[in-house]
Amino acid sequence: MSGAGDGNSAYGRRPFERSKAHFTDRITADGRDGWPVAAGRYRLVVSRACPWASRAVISRRLLGLEASVSLAITDPVQDDRSWRFGLDPGGRDPVLGIHFLSEAYERRETGYPGGVSVPAIVDIPTGKLVTNDYERITLDFATEWTALHREGAPDLYPEHLRDEIDEVMAEVYEDVNNGVYRAGFATEQAEYEAACSAVFRRLELLTERLARQRYLVGDTITEADIRLFTTLVRFDAVYHGHFKCNRWKLTENPVLWAYARDLFQTPGFGDTVDFDHIKRHYYQVHTGINPTRIVPLGPDLSGWLTAHHREELGGRPFGDGVPPGPVRAGEEVPAAGRP
Length: 339
Fold this sequence. Notes:
Elements: E1 42-46, H1 51-63, E2 69-73, H2 102-108, E3 120-123, E4 128-131, H3 134-143, H4 162-177, H5 179-184, H6 189-210, H7 223-239, H8 254-264, H9 275-285
Parallel strand pairs: 1-2
Antiparallel strand pairs: 1-3, 3-4
Helix pairs in contact: 1-3, 1-7, 4-6, 4-7, 7-8
């Protein structure tokens, strides 16, 4: 999710096009791009508001990488200078010593003209950005960081299912993850209607799939579930109203609502979600859509904790592994953001 370079007020006033990641170096076991996997070397910078960043937060927690990759959480309400560390004392990240994520981008490429996006991984010794490739970061967490995974970590990208996972993720990305943004930031009626129709057409196909199986691919949680979840968990809070994806609410679709609750109640998912950050970001930053910057009181979040009965479909959330332990001290979601 971008946070600088062209001004947040532009959202909703011009056609939406998601930019590709500019910095696509990979952190790998063999260090072939110059960035070897190493405990304590890298800092993951995220916004809890951003679905793309939330993928990385969930993956890091499920795999037990908290002790190896430290976490920086930005203020959900950024300005045109980029994501800022307004939640930290003095507005400065305590590890990187910077006020704005753009400073790490600038250290990597002086005069970098593009937007500043999260998730981002920063090299702590140099303060330079390593990657903002949201598509690759979580896949590499699952496959390149295995030496640092916790005992009992799940296989989020099992090799024998990768073709199917990739196919499902591509469809979810095009019509759902990115589709809600195309609808929300549309500047023409026809553009909006095409995007919104595609969102719900895909959600209906996913409903058919998930009516007969607990997870999207195989019988365990995979990367595909993480990527769908981060959109579903934001659906009623921001996409239904703010982005006008209002054919129906998530809570009105029994299958998807139960699926989303199942994941939310799984350690590593709901305990990373901050509804306060989500709502304040979308409603206060996208002034082209919501010029008053008023944040709605709803929806009621208590339903997220109700029984889902998805275990009746079978499935083993963590495969042969086990759930992650308690949330790391200092990384808990504040009460204002929880159901």
